[in-house]
Amino acid sequence: MSTLSTSTTRPIEINSNKYFVYCGIGGILACGTTHFGMTPIDMLKCRMQVDPKAYRGIFDGIRKVAGSKGLHGLYLGGTATFIGYSLQGMGKYGFYEYFKYAYGQAVGSDRAQRHKTLLYLSASASAEFLADIMLCPLETIKVRMQTAAPGTAVGGFASTLSQIRSAEGLQGFYKGIGPLWLRQIPYTMVKFASFENIVEAIYSRVLQRPKSQLSKAQQLGVTFAAGYLAGIMCAIVSHPADTVVSKLNSVARSKNNSSGQAQTTVSTILKELGFRGLWTGLLPRIFMIGTLTATQWLIFDSFKVKTGLPTTGGDGSDDSKRQ
């Protein structure tokens, strides 16, 4: 293990338990804050997925919601978003670094280096599987609030939580875990594997300079650029499942408010939407996820730099290759 010093002069061993905890903290800062900041775009995206005719676009939606509900209305579901994605970020980044190290140790450093993309994919998939278990209940609350039909009274975080618990029990919070895994696991696999490879390509092919020759500010610039490109790829890969999650929770809410007893499944939603319907709201989500992913990587790597750790990815001098 390598040892680096933080700004408080306390050394952090790369791939030590303390290192993984710090990565988890960085994930909380990266994901909780950014997802909360993007709540208005996320809410409009969810509503467009459930009712494509609701708004003509992002700006039309912002104008209509702000006009009828005020700025507060744009942050509907914000509390659930912040809590849920803080927990998810902790698991996503912390477990990713742990599994990347553990799997690398299991197969040996030479094989891990030869098949590093496979290492990134397997580590990120494992991390996201666990992170989504923490996220799912909060995601359910968020989507129920955000996809309420126009004119429907929307309760706050606590009342929505209570409503789901009373009507459906624990199962109600995890009804969407399957679609959530289908959305988030491919998303995270693309997010981490593409980011790591894009960063390496920028240093080796574009800048043609090792990371060690660039300032920390320049390295963070590379982080942001690679994060945005990775985010665009993430949005495209995960969007169909995201549409199903929004529709599934919207249907569940409408049935709780009516006497309808018909069973709605993922397969029936897929038949109803069709291939074209699965891609509704893609452009707002590309904008949201691209910005979100780039900002998350920037916050995460900035936190690492602040604590004396190296930025993620690069030319072989990064933490992922130190054991």
TrEMBL record:
<dbReference type="InterPro" id="IPR018108">
    <property type="entry name" value="MCP_transmembrane"/>
</dbReference>
<comment type="similarity">
    <text>Belongs to the mitochondrial carrier (TC 2.A.29) family.</text>
</comment>
<feature type="repeat" description="Solcar">
    <location>
        <begin position="115"/>
        <end position="201"/>
    </location>
</feature>
<keyword id="KW-0812">Transmembrane</keyword>
<dbReference type="GO" id="GO:0005743">
    <property type="term" value="C:mitochondrial inner membrane"/>
</dbReference>
<keyword id="KW-0472">Membrane</keyword>
<keyword id="KW-1133">Transmembrane helix</keyword>
<protein>
    <submittedName>
        <fullName>Cu/Pi carrier</fullName>
    </submittedName>
</protein>
<feature type="transmembrane region" description="Helical">
    <location>
        <begin position="19"/>
        <end position="38"/>
    </location>
</feature>
<dbReference type="GO" id="GO:1990547">
    <property type="term" value="P:mitochondrial phosphate ion transmembrane transport"/>
</dbReference>
<dbReference type="Pfam" id="PF00153">
    <property type="entry name" value="Mito_carr"/>
</dbReference>
<keyword id="KW-0813">Transport</keyword>
<keyword id="KW-0809">Transit peptide</keyword>
<feature type="repeat" description="Solcar">
    <location>
        <begin position="18"/>
        <end position="102"/>
    </location>
</feature>
<dbReference type="InterPro" id="IPR044677">
    <property type="entry name" value="SLC25A3/Pic2/Mir1-like"/>
</dbReference>
<keyword id="KW-0999">Mitochondrion inner membrane</keyword>
<dbReference type="InterPro" id="IPR023395">
    <property type="entry name" value="MCP_dom_sf"/>
</dbReference>
<dbReference type="GO" id="GO:0005315">
    <property type="term" value="F:phosphate transmembrane transporter activity"/>
</dbReference>
<feature type="repeat" description="Solcar">
    <location>
        <begin position="218"/>
        <end position="306"/>
    </location>
</feature>
<keyword id="KW-0677">Repeat</keyword>
<keyword id="KW-0496">Mitochondrion</keyword>
<feature type="transmembrane region" description="Helical">
    <location>
        <begin position="282"/>
        <end position="300"/>
    </location>
</feature>
